[in-house]
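Throughout this chapter, every protein is written as a compact record of paired, labelled lines. The reader may check this reading against the record printed directly beneath this paragraph:
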Amino acid sequence: MPPVTRVVLAEDEVLLREGLVGLLERFGFEVLAAAGSAPELLAAARTHRPDLVVTDIRMPPGRRDDGLRAAVELRAERPELAVVVLSQHVQAEYAAALLGSGDGRRVGYLLKDRVAEVVEFVEQLRTVTGGGTVIDPDVVRRLLHRPNDPLAALSGREREVLGLVAQGRSNAAIAAALHVTEAAVGKHVGNILTKLGLLPSDDTNRRVLAVLTYLRGGSTWTGPSADRRG
């Protein structure tokens, strides 16, 4: 049997927090602690050193982006830590914040509505824990329609492929979704990386950098805004 994933959960709404604890335990996760604030999350994660942190973005004491900031801080201390943040709203800069932490892998940004899709939600947690990156499809769709698109050099198919890469899908999964060969997907990905100026390197994950460019929209992310709501 695979090792049990050890989790620290952070959610300030008691009913949702208890519901998430029950859901995770039902699917074989071990919940080490359930925090109700960002400081409690930091303390619990540092004490228990979990495999995965699942946190709401909007947390006490500030009730703004405290949960996200705590997650990014934990990733700075332990880049290998898997982190999934939950949000009420689509905020592309939050996804960019996570991708910019550590090596950009083992992170997820999901809307809270996804929790209701229990099996898919659990699979996404396992994808992140296994080293993948999962970005909510609604974030990707919103980015596809933003003005002044910095990815204008990409073809329609290349943008579609990059959107699926941003959701954390493998080349095989993208090929199945688009009904093309895996070799064709590999060619599209290669073209995307070339057009974005991401040259081969042993020290960087170019797919992650491509998604980060996609999410940032060509601008530099300097931190979650104080007036935003998770």
